[in-house]
Write a sequence for this structure.
């Protein structure tokens, strides 16, 4: 299989400064590719130095040995791919090959149509092929990057076809969204970035979502994105090649390799350091019961203290009443769903514990200054412009 047949480039649409991704090539004599005036060359083989207008002889390059069982990996890049995620993953794989002094991993970058993909940071990321030219049956892992808003049927069919084969499939951050829409995460434990956990759970109730850094469940895997990508890839290297190599890569990249059980920092309640344990428990009860809100009496009974004690705690430490604080939690959840899902106003009002849309609309207007419909438009427009 010749997965890597073309060099990869990353060019900036803002200032035309190139970014270089470490990539292992199997074809040594590939010509350079011109990218906005900058020559991006394959990893193997440098252009011979010129002497008196002629190329001088060059010593043969040292080509790493190829392991008996090479892991073939494809990154499916969709709009909104995070450069930090892609770079972190490739860094782990590249250093695994370097430190082992043999090719343990080969990877390729692909997109839906074989054209460059706009990253979340505003860079155009060049790929090597379109997904239709990629044979998933010859892969060990398929990793989806970006694509929070991607739901076209051609992509869904291709992902479902890949999901029927014997390979591991996962996503980085928002890459869990297209996998969930294709039904590939139904009844699997999974995760995504903490900002999207509530919206994704509401949109895909069959997912077993958690706020862990990364989750591996049989032949599916997912992570929150960012530096968590390194943790996930180091986990794979440790499982497939041994913990000694994983530790060596961790030392080389100056990262820790955190376990999957760790919780995303943003998913933890803030602030919590100075709050009494009893008040933290009250807030947790509220956060865990948005769709069917608890009464103040039910909260106090579960905490084993009186209603007046609960009210005093909220007033002293949060300068708020329990009912007001609870309402703000529900309205903030509604705002997230308005921004990040396509659910109707009625569905969102029910998901946030409101018995009628009129009551929901009144509270949204009181809190945010406009109707739910207008708020959703503003939030989505602001997100698109950003």
């Amino acid at each position: 299989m010749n997965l890597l047949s073309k060099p990869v480039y990353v060019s900036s649409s803002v200032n035309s400064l190139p970014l270089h991704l470490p990539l292992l090539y199997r074809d040594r004599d590939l010509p350079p590719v011109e990218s906005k005036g900058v020559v991006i060359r394959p990893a193997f083989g440098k252009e011979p130095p010129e002497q008196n207008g002629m190329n001088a002889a060059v010593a043969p390059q040292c080509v790493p040995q190829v392991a008996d069982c090479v892991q073939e990996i494809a990154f499916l890049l969709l709009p909104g791919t995070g450069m930090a995620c892609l770079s972190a993953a490739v860094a782990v794989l590249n250093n695994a090959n370097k430190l082992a002094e043999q090719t343990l991993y080969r990877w390729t970058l692909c997109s839906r149509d074989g054209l460059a993909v706009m990253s979340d940071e505003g860079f155009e990321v060049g790929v090597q092929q379109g997904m239709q030219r990629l044979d998933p049956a010859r892969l060990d892992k398929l990793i989806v990057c970006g694509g929070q808003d991607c739901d076209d049927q051609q992509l869904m069919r291709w992902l479902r076809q890949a999901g029927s084969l014997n390979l591991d499939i996962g996503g980085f951050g928002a890459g869990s969204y297209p996998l969930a829409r294709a039904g590939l995460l139904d009844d699997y434990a999974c995760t995504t970035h903490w900002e999207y956990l509530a919206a994704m759970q509401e949109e895909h109730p069959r997912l077993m979502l958690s706020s862990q850094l990364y989750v591996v469940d049989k032949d599916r895997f997912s992570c929150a994105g960012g530096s968590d990508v390194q943790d996930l890839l180091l986990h794979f290297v440790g499982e497939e090649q041994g913990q000694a190599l994983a530790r060596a890569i961790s030392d080389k990249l100056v990262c820790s390799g955190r376990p999957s059980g760790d919780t995303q920092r943003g998913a933890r309640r803030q602030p919590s350091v100075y709050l009494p344990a009893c008040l933290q428990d009250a807030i947790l009860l509220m956060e865990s019961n948005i769709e069917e809100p608890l009464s103040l009496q039910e909260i106090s009974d579960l905490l084993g203290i009186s209603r007046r004690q609960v009210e005093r705690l909220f007033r002293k430490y949060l300068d708020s009443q329990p009912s007001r604080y609870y309402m703000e939690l529900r309205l903030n959840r509604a705002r997230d769903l308005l921004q990040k899902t396509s659910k109707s106003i009625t569905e969102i009002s029910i998901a946030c514990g409101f018995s009628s849309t009129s009551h929901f609309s009144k509270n949204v207007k009181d809190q945010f200054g406009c109707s739910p419909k207008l708020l959703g438009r503003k939030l989505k427009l602001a997100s698109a412009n950003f």
